[in-house]
Design brief:
Elements: H1 11-22, E1 25-29, E2 35-43, E3 47-51, E4 59-62, E5 68-71
Antiparallel strand pairs: 1-2, 1-5, 2-3, 3-4
Length: 73
């Protein structure tokens, strides 16, 4: 597996970082219609750390599995 660093010059990376910084609740759509909701804590080249309501620990979501990310509210 090739590891590519996050390029902060890319608009998608900057937008996601803004959502992380501002604590915006998000909906992540995964294959087969599965949706996860929560707040992103951080991102790296392979994963997004999603804090879900009521869960004491973040869930790691593979960037490759995410179809869409949209802000809630």
């Amino acid at each position: 597996m090739e590891n590519h660093p996050l390029d902060p010059n890319l608009p998608g990376i900057r937008l996601i970082q803004g959502w992380v910084r501002d604590g915006i609740p998000l909906s992540l759509e995964l294959p087969e219609g599965l949706r996860l909701e929560g707040r992103l804590l951080w991102q790296d080249p392979e994963f997004l750390a999603l804090e879900r309501p009521g869960s004491p620990h973040p869930m790691l979501v593979s960037r490759r599995a995410v179809l869409t990310i949209r802000p809630l509210g």
